[in-house]
# Entry
Amino acid sequence: MKNPATPLKINTNRMTPDEIQHWERNGYFVRENVFSHKENDHLRQVAEDIVAGKRKMPMAHIDRNALVRDGKDPRSGIYGMHKIHHPSCYIPEFLARVRDPRLTDPVADILGPDVLGINNLFIWKAPKIGLGFPWHQDKFYFGKRFRTATTVGTWTAIDPADRENGCLYVIPGSHKQAISEHDDIEGSQQNEFKLARNARDEDGIPVEVPPGAVIWFHSHLLHKSTNNHSQRFRRSYVSHYLSAQAEWMNSENAGNGQPIMWIRGQTYPGKVQEVTREVIPAE
Ligand SMILES: O=C(O)CCC(=O)C(=O)O
# Structure
């Protein structure tokens, strides 16, 4: 039996020595059973309520699947969705999730105690039409906003993610590389994403995970995901973190239209002017 006098542990989700070693060597690590089926299901339901218009988010942050958007596929509702961008800025359940210590304790181990949330997205890959993301390094995009060694991305599986339904692929060790050139690619969803020039498919490995698992990954890590060839959904929730002590390119306009959320620890007004602490009402 537990000794009731034992003090409560803080940071109970800290990285283990094996995880630290895996992170340093490969640029990512995976934990299973971080979130329960019930918790995942709740987040999925909130995301569906946003799509159904029962919860308010700016329409500009809600993206349909490109085939549906371009009239090439007749599906609608969640079957026609691609992603919701920045839900944590508007929806309390998502704000609670991005601040959940099960996600952020390991982030604080990597980035230090003062953490901001800079981007988050709920992604649908609908059966048969869900589209993949080409090889890329997140820092290619984030690097335009701040100078810092890394941000940390977390990728939570809402459904089982496997090769058939378009799981994440990574190139282990690529986080030690500089940021590659990224080139435009033809068509589909991914006019929003470019292709990293130095990524080779043969170096990539699939990271197949059960629902509730989380992948923590370095912003230099080359990663991609493939199209959904299955009859099942492949949903995920992705959230990116930055040290509050990072140097921004332009602290006056750091968010540049993307609210920066306080996650934990101190903030540094000299580094970034405006940090959002509460959800923003969306009408
Ligand atoms: O969930 C996916 O399919 C890919 C997400 C991704 O690559 C990203 O958010 O950077």
